[in-house]
Specification:
single chain; 336 residues; alpha/beta; Rossmann fold; Helicase, Ruva Protein, domain 3; Zinc Finger, Delta Prime, domain 3; 16 helices; 8% strand
Length: 336
């Protein structure tokens, strides 16, 4: 592909930062010669620049090259003034043939197409250029990427362990690939196990709290409290920890109720949008021997804790410890 084939107007947005960055880097390489990159590649941080600066960079001729690239990252498209909206329209509808102009939404939340202003901006980019929405991949696609990445590094990982790895670390591809590097270096050419994931990978808050809930269902209060201390040392927000704990127990309650109705955990995803089938499967394993009544009482304990989590951070950690002790008693049938 020739450099000139990649020039034009682009808008890239969505929830998957790793792939968005990959596309942006590919566009830069296709349109900017490394020998004159300092002249022909201009990057603007949207919140610290003006559209006049962007326009000047777009209109300038490339130096000793046929093409150049201008990247504008996280420009506040939804909140810009009417005056800036007019300036943006002028820039977008007349991008020179020698220029690749990319608006990259990287660190801002994906905009809602339901707003009037975003609709107008979106249609403007569609009319004069190309729009690409890049969202996080599902677990099945992530498994393929992880298993392929592990194989390229001379290691192996089976499907179940790859799934466990994703549930543990989260669905951010950038974080996942970073943890893959660590795992492969640790395992030195052998197959990666779930124990290796537990030993090496940095788990997401949700996964860490999921492990705490698992320890409580197994009656291991001491281990659960030790894991809570780790989250405290990592300066996690107590309210976020409580929220993740609620989510874990809600999932366990859901799958137990579904089981009583003769339904598999996966069936819940068709009834309640947004549920993670893999997380439900693990919840089913942890809750398989727990009565629905005990899980209902556990949720009541968590509800009481929710009304108490309004003090200082220190008090909130104490509330969490007391709540976990109450959950342990409830799940072991020792609640008075």
């Amino acid at each position: 592909m020739k450099q000139g084939d990649c020039t034009g107007l682009y808008l890239i947005y969505g929830t998957e930062n790793y792939i968005k960055q990959h596309y942006a880097e590919t566009l830069r390489k296709k349109t900017v010669s490394p020998d004159f990159e300092s002249f022909n590649f201009k990057r603007f941080e949207g919140k610290q620049t003006t559209l006049d600066d962007v326009n000047d960079a777009v209109e300038a001729m490339p130096f000793m090259s046929e093409t150049k690239c201008v990247l504008v990252q996280d420009y506040p498209l939804e909140t810009m003034s009417d005056t800036d909206a007019e300036k943006l329209t002028e820039i977008l509808r007349d991008v020179p043939e020698c220029c690749a102009l990319l608006f990259l939404m990287l660190d801002t939340a994906p905009p809602s197409r339901k707003t009037k202003k975003w609709n107008a901006v979106f249609e403007l980019f569609q009319k004069h250029g190309s729009v690409l929405e890049v969202n996080k991949k599902g677990t099945a696609d992530l498994k393929k990427i992880i298993m392929g990445g592990v194989a390229k590094r001379g290691n192996a990982i089976d499907s179940a362990t790859a799934e466990y790895f994703i549930v543990s670390v989260g669905n951010d591809l950038n974080l996942l690939l970073g943890e893959v590097e660590k795992l492969c270096a640790y395992c030195k050419g052998r197959a990666i196990t779930q124990a290796d994931v537990d030993m090496v990978a940095v788990k997401s808050l949700e996964a860490s709290v999921f492990d705490i809930a698992k320890m409580l269902t197994q009656g291991r209060l001491d281990r659960a409290l030790s894991m809570l201390d780790i989250l405290k040392s990592q300066r996690a927000e107590p309210v976020m920890v409580h929220g993740a704990l609620v989510s874990s127990f809600v999932n366990m309650y859901r799958v137990r109720v579904a089981a009583q109705a003769g339904k598999r955990p996966d069936a819940l995803t068709a009834v309640i949008p947004g549920l993670n089938a893999y997380a439900l499967r693990y919840a089913a394993q942890d809750a398989q021997n727990l009565p629905v009544k005990s899980l209902r009482e556990a949720l009541e304990e968590l509800h009481r804790a929710d009304s108490l989590l309004k003090g200082s951070a220190v008090e909130n950690w104490l509330i969490l410890e007391q709540t976990m002790a109450a959950l342990w008693q409830t799940l072991r049938g020792k609640k008075k």
